[in-house]
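Are you able to produce any protein sequence you like plus the matching backbone structure tokens because I've never seen that pairing?
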Amino acid sequence: MLAPARPPRSRLEEILRDVATFHRANPRVWELFCSFGQRAAERDNPGNGGLRTYGARMIWERIRWEVNVELRGIDGTRVRLNDHYVAYYARAFMMRYPEYAGLFKPRKLSSARKPPRGRESIDPDLTQHELLFEEGEMVADEHLRGIFGDGRAPDPG
């Protein structure tokens, strides 16, 4: 029997858990993100006079259209794409396809310093070292490799 998961200590942990849950339920979204990202990178690379970077949100909106308008859902079910997940899909894409590193320009993950929903502060046991570690995106990248790399999500704690 598995021990119950501990509550998230920061908003980053909370979002990573949510992304993992979403990905397990909707792997087709990741497939589409990769497909559209590769098409954009290959078609419009700077060598062909195209764009150097794209906004990951553009890919996300294309997926939203494809899934909910063209396909009318996945397995007959409409999919709600949470805009908070875009940055994590973009990071995972660039890790999975290093030849496209720089296709998206990820921002710093400010969620490492924010408390989970419904709490006024981050966990006091989250040390300054851990905050800096998370802020450097190393924790997020490690978890994203687990979520998107082999389809399984690691326990963020």
User: Anything to note?
Assistant: Helices lie at 11-25, 27-43, 56-70, 86-96, 128-135, 138-149. Residues 132-136, 150-157 have pLDDT under 50 and may be disordered.
